[in-house]
Every structure is written in C-alpha cells, then in structure tokens.
Automatic annotation (TrEMBL):
The organism of origin for this protein: Adiantum capillus-veneris (Maidenhair fern)
Name of the protein: adenylate kinase
HAMAP family in UniProt: Adenylate_kinase_Adk
Residue span(s) of domain Adenylate kinase active site lid: 160-195
Pfam family, one: ADK_lid
Record-listed E.C. numbers: 2.7.4.3
Gene3D superfamilies hit by this protein: P-loop containing nucleotide triphosphate hydrolases
Chemical reaction(s) catalysed: AMP + ATP = 2 ADP
Amino acid sequence: MASAAPAADLADVATTDLMSELLHRMKCASKPDKRVILVGPPGCGKGTQSPILKDEYCLCHLATGDMLRAAVTAKTPLGLKAKEAMDKGELVSDDLVVGIINEAVKKPSCQKGFILDGFPRTVVQAEKLDAMLANQGTKVDKVLNFEIADSILEERITGRWIHPASGRSYHNKFAPPKVPGLDDITGEPLIQRKDDNADVLKSRLEAFHKQTKPVVDHYKERGVVVGLHAEKSPQEVSAEIKNALS
C-alpha cells in the first residue's frame, strides 16, 4: 500500500486543487475498471481519442516511449538497465518494457485501469504483457483497432501539430488550434514531429502492417478486438469507442 504524502506537502497545495482532485476521485470511484490497448497506424486518431478516453473512464495513459524516458530520468532500477541498453545503442528488451509497465499500472493514477499506446508491437510482446497482467489477476479488456486506408493518412500526417507536454494533437485542416501554432489550453508553442512527412510515413506504414496485424490476430482469438472506422470524424469515432466500452 502506498504511503500517504507528508502533511507538510498537502499544506502547501491550494485548496481548489485539493477539492478538484477529491471531486475527480469521487467521480472515478464508480467507474468500472478498464484495461485498453490502442492499435493503429500513425495519423489514425489515437492522439485525439486518448485524452477523451482517459478523462471519461479515469484511466492512466501509458505511452511506452514516455515511460522509458521517465524511468531513465528517475533512475529507477529498470530505468538504469534501460539507459545502459540505450547507451550501447541496443534496443530495450521486451522484458524491461513490460517491467516498466508493471510498475506503472500499480500507481494510484492507474487504479481504474489504463490505456496502452505503442505497445505491444509484436506477438511476443503481447504474450509477455498478457502473462504480466495474469500475474496481477487481470487481463486486457478491449483492443481498439483504428482501421483506416493508407491513402487517407498522408494528408492527416503532414498537417499534424503536437503540444509536447500534454500530447494534445491538432491539424491544420481537421482540428486547427484557436490560435495558429499555439496550444488551446496553455498557449505554448506546438511542434511538428520530424517524421511527419510522406516518405517517413510510407516506411512506417509498411513496418506497422507487417508487425501489428499478427498482434491484432492474437487478440482477436481472445474476442477482445473492436474495429473502429478511424476515417470518420473524431466525434463519430468517440461514439464508436463509447459503444465498444459500454
């Protein structure tokens, strides 16, 4: 059981922040547990749906790249092992990534479950994830498969802008920010990822289809995959997700 924060720490927190967190936790208490994997090619809309899904179901959002960087920065035992591999130019092992996910899902913010984005990418990773969850007495509840034709993705990708701190995504045409180049919430500058161009997209899509189709098939055998019409509007995709998770 996690130890309580020292009283002095709480004394320095604004009352409005404490009340806001308390109300949030009371709202979340009645939500059912959900363990959800998002699968889809770059530009499919996962970045738009993740924050909605996180807020609606009180889930934590686990993006493996961010988690690895956080573990390295925090110098956790697993983070130090990951850094050692990265410093040698090696890939971080599947077991290490699953270990970092295992640590993350035990945090209070993940009490109601999680959204896993960017993992598993291979069947071996899926099997290791399944085994880790089985050890906790849980399993993946739903795999949301964002299905979309490659031909639609190029326009989406090349017009995409990201708020680095939160992961909020915008698009020049489909979801422009209120002020060009600035995040709606914080007013901070948006960035365009260096791999958001047509040439990089083509190779990423080839790798995605080759690696990920077997992962989807793995979970189809377990009856937990829901196909989404990811070419539709964000509102329509949100409605499909709500139906899938109800």
